[in-house]
Automatic annotation (TrEMBL), chains A, B:
Keywords: Cytoplasm, Hydrolase, Magnesium, Metal-binding, Nucleus. NCBIfam families: HAD-SF-IIA, HAD-SF-IIA-hyp3. It comes from Delphinapterus leucas. This is Phospholysine phosphohistidine inorganic pyrophosphate phosphatase. It is found in: Cytoplasm; Nucleus. One of its GO terms (cellular component) is nuclear speck. PANTHER family: 4-NITROPHENYLPHOSPHATASE-RELATED (PTHR19288), PHOSPHOLYSINE PHOSPHOHISTIDINE INORGANIC PYROPHOSPHATE PHOSPHATASE (PTHR19288:SF44). Its cofactor is Mg(2+). Belongs to the HAD-like hydrolase superfamily. GO terms for molecular function: inorganic diphosphate phosphatase activity; metal ion binding; phosphatase activity; protein homodimerization activity. One of its GO terms (biological process) is phosphate-containing compound metabolic process.
Length: 270, 270
């Protein structure tokens, strides 16, 4: 047992990242990470509250949950905090009409949003949709606005698929920021508002919650800056250098979700 | 006549940007900017030395010059300082084998370069070649290197074609820098080494030279930081806000190359 296991005392709620923690995406939908299906089942049988906090923006919540259920995970749509629905709330509140640079798989989340005569841009992980033509169109929309507003659904650098590391939305957001001389508003991790909405949905205070993720910046640092604890798993996009990150230190590092759940069930209620 | 015309006294050599100063690119090769063909001819008939200093990285120097000659410009290949040949010299000096994320139009410049088993990446204005797949491949090459080295042929934000503003290489360089946590080495404007090589080819000292360009950062600020004077033309990618840039002030602003040449011929030898 890791000596830092004692730092888990008093945890009442667990926020779980999905990609790289539950499964690795890829051709044919991806594959569960070994032990994660069973670990989630054990966690959900415990006293701990569980919620999923993801930056997944290629799929609608419905499609994501359907895929995970087919892989064997016990998860329902209402348990997932995801950036596309959060962005829709913001767009409605502020009366904004977006030009959407997004994956077709998540387009249905924006069905109720007016996209005519756009006055902002929403960028998400568009994958192959990040063609030069599509990037240039988003750039031109922004350059024509007097006050260009860009929303980025997460700002991850890359993620891991079964075939290797893949560019996430963050690099493309940086590209538009540089091209237009602006700064994007991030909707998703590591935005504090996003973590707070997940905590609120779980009805748990930050100091009683722990984030489990594979991203040292988006998951670990983001959660810690909200007053939560955070574990990094050595799966997904984890790289050994993460354990010597110059600015971020997780409350603990575990080999995978199964080890995280073992430790939580052993220490959380102490 | 602009009052600042007196600042042109003592100029002996003129460095000319190409895109946005001589012509605007676009479908069918683009079009000369009104008055530029004749202005260049007058400049070359004068006592002033002239050299072209471009970040063009979609075309080989030969193709660029051929296109400009067809548009009526008096220009030859030996008069052009361009980033691809400069990059080839650096690659050879340092024994580097690049993965090339470049436009097919400039590939011939790298004919003599070993690209097997790459140990660095060269990114240039690839245009439509900036597909997700090509960006991801360059990213993966960099992530597999122990000391990732990225050369960027220029770092422009965008340029103007006859159809509108187009993303240049800079945003895509920023994307790879962010994805990999590295900083690119710029070959081209505004790198001081690049301006210095153009001055050396022209055999003129920095304080006797003036840069004429449409880019307030890449052309004007870059040249000034080398000890040169710099004029910005109100053609190409120029935007009115450039004249109130928070950090950069050109030695003068002119409507186009024709006005710049008028003023130079009037004041340079005073």
């Amino acid at each position: 047992m890791a000596a830092w296991g004692e730092r888990l005392a008093g945890v009442r709620g667990v926020l779980l990242d999905i990609s790289g923690v539950l499964y690795d995406g890829g051709e044919g939908g991806g594959a569960p990470i070994v032990g994660s299906v069973e670990a989630l089942a054990r966690l959900k049988r415990s006293q701990l509250k569980v919620r999923f906090c993801t930056n997944e923006s290629q799929k609608s919540r419905g499609d994501l949950v359907g895929m995970l259920r087919r892989l064997g995970f016990d998860i329902s749509e209402g348990e997932v905090t995801a950036p596309a629905p959060a962005a829709c709330l913001i767009l409605k509140e502020r009366g904004l009409r977006p030009h959407l640079l997004i994956h077709d798989g998540v387009r249905s989340e924006f069905d109720q949003i007016d996209t005519s005569n756009p006055n902002c841009v929403v960028i998400a992980d568009a994958g192959e949709g990040f063609s030069y033509q599509n990037m240039n169109k988003a750039f031109q929309v922004l350059m024509e606005l007097e006050n260009p507003v860009l929303f980025s659904l997460g700002k991850g650098r890359y993620y891991k698929e079964t075939s290797g590391l893949m560019l996430d939305v963050g690099p493309y957001t940086k590209a538009l920021e540089y091209a237009c001389g602006i700064e994007a508003e991030v909707v998703g991790k590591p935005s504090p508002e996003f973590f707070k909405s997940a905590l609120w949905e779980m009805r748990v205070e930050a100091h009683q919650a722990i984030m489990i993720g594979d991203d040292i910046v988006g998951d670990v640092s983001g959660a810690q800056r909200c007053g939560m604890r955070a574990l990094q798993v050595r799966t997904g996009k984890f790289r050994p250098s993460d354990e010597h990150h110059p600015e971020v230190k997780a409350d603990g590092y575990v080999d995978n979700l199964a080890e995280a759940v073992d430790l939580l069930l052993q220490h959380a209620d102490k």
